[in-house]
Amino acid sequence: MPIRKFAKIVESAMRDADQARRIKGDAGWNKVQQKDRGATLRKFETVQDTIRERDVKAKKKTKKG
Predict the structure, then answer these.
(1) DSSP character for 3?
(2) What is the DSSP string of 5-58?
(3) CA 33 → CA 16, 21, 49, 59, distances in Å?
(4) Cα separation of 60 and 9, whole Å?
(5) What angle do CA 59, 33, 25 make, to 5 degrees?
(6) Is 70 exceeded by the pLDDT of residue 65?
(7) Does pTM top 0.85 for this prediction?
């Protein structure tokens, strides 16, 4: 592999890593991603079942307490 091609690959990877570090530090972006991830996960049936079970357990705890 020619050295220039290898240098371009390394430069591109470093640029991508730098961009990822900058984006990760943005609190607003992180919040939006978390909300979106939660909304996406709620579409799956197993996640919906787990959420229902969690809510039932929470209601039982409040009735006992």
Answers:
(1) H
(2) HHHHHHHHHHHHHHHHHHHHT-HHHHHHHHHHHHHHHTTSHHHHHHHHHHHHHH
(3) 19, 15, 23, 29
(4) 57
(5) 120
(6) no
(7) no
